[in-house]
Amino acid sequence: MNFLAHIYLSQDRDLVQIGNFAADSIKGKKYKSLPVEMQKGILLHRKIDSFTDSHPIVFKSAHRFFEKYGHYNTVLMDVIYDHFLAKNWKSYSNIPLSDYVNSFYELLQTHFEILPKNVQRFYPYMVEQNWLLSYTSINGIEGILAQMNHRIKHRVPLHESIVELEEFYEELEHEFSLFFTELIAYSKKELSLIDQLYDKAPN
C-alpha cells in the first residue's frame, strides 16, 4: 500500500499517521529515538507491508503486471490500490477526501521538525502537486508513475502500466475491495497489539 492507505489505517491518531506515512524513510531501529506514538506508526507500517506482500489477493493482482514490469509489479500495486481507495473513499470515510488530505498536510506542517530529512525535502512538492488527491484519477496515477520512473532512472516504464490498469480495471478494483476489508481488520488488531506492547514496556 502507498501513502494514502498507510495514513488511513492509522486510526486517526496524529503521530501514528505521521510514523506510518514516513516509515520507509526510517530504517532499522532508528525509530526508537522518536516519540512513542510515531514509533507505533512505524511498526504498524512494517506490519501492513508484510501482510500486503504475502497476501494471495495482492499476488493475483500484481501477477498481471509481472511479465512487463518484473519485480516492480509490487510497486505498481501500491499505487494502484491507493487509486482504488481514493476512488471509493466514501465507502471508507465520512470525511471528504479533499478535507482529509488537507488536514494531513497541516498535520505534517505542525510536526515538521520531527519528520525525516527527505520527507521535509519532498513535503512542499507533495502539497503543491497534491499527491494524495491525485490518486483519484487515472491521469493522476500516470503522473505519479512518471515521477517514479525518474527515481528508478527509467529502468522500467512504469507509466505504461496504465494500459494494463485500464484493461483489468474491474478485476483489480474487486480484488482491492476484498483485500482492503481484510487489511482494515488486520491493522486495527495489530495497532492494538502494538499499544499493549508499549503499555507493558518498562519506562
Gist of the model:
This protein has 203 residues and is an all-alpha fold.
Describe the structure.
- This protein has 203 residues and is mostly helical.
- It has one domain (3-200).
- 70% of the residues lie in helices and 0% in strands.
- It contains 12 helices and no strands.
- Helix 2 (14-22) crosses helix 3 and helix 4 packs across helix 6 (73-87).
- The radius of gyration is 17 Å and the shape is globular.
- The two termini are 33 Å apart.
- The mean pLDDT is 94.
**Poorly predicted ranges:** none
Task: Count the E strands.
Answer: 0
Order of helices and strands: HHHHHHHHHHHH
Rounded to the nearest angstrom, the distance between the terminal CA atoms is 33 Å
Rg, Cα atoms, Å: 17 Å
Please give the count of helices.
Answer: 12
Percentage beta strand: under 5%
Main features:
single chain; about 0% strand; about 200 residues; globular; 12 helices; mainly alpha
Give the SSE layout:
Layout: H1 3-8, H2 14-22, H3 36-53, H4 56-63, H5 66-69, H6 73-87, H7 97-110, H8 117-128, H9 131-134, H10 138-151, H11 162-167, H12 169-200
Helix pairs in contact: 2-3, 3-12, 4-6, 4-12, 6-10
